[in-house]
Amino acid sequence: MNLEQLILHIEALIFASQQAITMAEIKEHLSNIIEEPIAEERLLQGIETIQEKYASEHYPFEIKAIGGGYQFLTKSDFYQTVAQLNGDKFIKKLSNAAMET
Questions:
Q1: Spatial separation of the C-alpha atoms in residues 69 and 86, rounded to whole Å
Q2: 101 has a pLDDT exceeding 60
Q3: Which residue from 11, 41, 52, 89 has the highest number of Cβ atoms inside 10 Å of its Cβ?
Q4: End-to-end Cα separation, the chain, in angstroms
């Protein structure tokens, strides 16, 4: 599989994952559909290419390495926009015990 096709598959996996997806998980899922072994260097190259793509100002989200994996996240410039959609449900509130600490 050429790199352009590989990038599309990696991007789809990261996008569809509900949580950060690890390199091992990406490799495992791709091995189920691609019958050739995929070097981790190629996966990293694909992820870096995707990260460069979304680093552009034309996209409101980016791919970040988080929790040992990769995940699509909204760029901080768009926090207020997303907060309007989600309301207070994603705002973390401290308990009284945490406030005292």
A1: 24
A2: no
A3: 11
A4: 54
